[in-house]
Specification:
Elements lengths: L2 H13 L2 H8 L3 H15 L4 E4 L2 E4 L1 H27 L5 E7 L1 H6 L1 H11 L3 E7 L2 H9 L5 E5 L8 E15 L10 E2 L9 E4 L4 H13 L6 E5 L2 H9 L5 E4 H9 L4 E5 L4 E10 L6 H19 L1
Parallel strand pairs: 3-4, 3-5, 7-11, 8-9
Antiparallel strand pairs: 1-2, 5-12, 6-10, 6-11, 6-12
């Protein structure tokens, strides 16, 4: 089997697009299509199906892709090991993150890492919990930092890094903003702005309101990002309960008001996730160590 053909197939499988692959590799699309067709002829199986403008891996393509992932992960691991022996740090690192750690925690940590190891190319992919878990299953990220409670396949290892506080925030013009401390019953008829329903943040706020406060969970709207939630709350469209790390600056600037509820404390965990059966590259190991060393300062500041 020609490894060049397999490498092109591997890249097309990751992107699920001949066009994006051609742009990323600076190779013409017809050339890539022709080389992948040669691979299909060699194995005697159809590897892609086309529906409209989209392409999908066939069941045979999925099998071949699972092996190509292992092959090219080993190649990257070998390159990193060689550079390490030479006293250098090279390589590529794909990190996945759910919204809060991806936006408010990891960029600072990755900046520290990049200053120390400029020859390691780092990519950060941010999405909701479902999206990041899907990327891990598809082997598109090396490690991930995910907030909230997890339900992962047994092939993944999850380690809790730290707990963040979940805090109630309202607009400064909201009637509740006149209080620093309220009885939970004042929240009985409030409308909440929450993260989209397939996210761990949605599950967390729903659990707090229904099970902890024992109140109705009435949503004014659900939004796809923490920033959108903050702006909606600041515009007095509803109230929300969010991780403190995501709203520290907004509270300090007076854009949001934090309110305590009957002295209750709620927490939101951040978890490090990676594959059990994969040998971690040296850049991955160093990044994991950097995350563990730095995340406490960022969350607690």
């Amino acid at each position: 089997m020609d490894l060049y053909h397999l490498w092109l197939f591997h890249n097309v499988s990751q992107n699920l697009s001949f066009t994006k692959t051609a742009e990323a590799l600076h190779i013409s699309q017809p050339t890539i299509s022709m080389q992948v067709k040669k691979l299909e002829d060699e194995v005697g199986l159809k590897l892609f199906e086309r529906y409209g403008r989209n392409i999908y891996l066939t069941q045979y393509g999925e099998i071949l892709y699972s092996y190509s992932q292992k092959i090219f992960n080993l190649v990257e691991e070998m390159k990193a090991e060689i550079h390490s022996i030479k006293g250098e740090m090279f390589g590529k690192l794909n990190i996945g993150a759910s919204n809060t750690p991806g936006i408010y925690i990891l960029p600072d940590i990755m900046g520290t890492f990049k200053e120390k190891y400029p020859n390691v190319k780092t990519n950060l992919h941010i999405g909701n919990t479902y999206e990041i878990q899907s990327m891990m299953v598809l082997n598109q990220v090396d490690i991930a930092v995910i907030g909230g409670e997890l339900d992962l396949p047994k092939s993944f290892y999850a380690e809790k890094l730290i707990d963040d506080l979940m805090v109630l925030v309202v607009s400064p013009s909201h009637p509740l903003a006149n209080y620093d401390y309220i009885d939970r019953r004042l929240l009985a008829n409030q409308m909440y702005i929450a993260h989209e329903s397939n996210s761990n943040l949605y599950n967390a706020i729903e659990k707090i309101v229904k099970k902890n406060l024992k109140l109705p969970f009435n949503t004014a709207m659900t939004l796809g990002s923490i920033d959108a939630i903050k702006h909606a709350v600041a515009a007095n469209l509803g109230i929300s309960i969010v991780p403190l790390t995501s709203v520290k600056q907004d509270i300090q600037l007076g854009m949001l008001k934090r309110i305590s509820v009957e002295g209750r404390v709620w927490t939101y965990p951040y978890n490090l996730v990676y594959y059990k059966d994969r040998n971690l590259t040296i850049p991955t190991k160093v990044m994991i160590q950097t995350i563990k060393e730095k995340i406490g300062r960022i969350v607690s500041d």
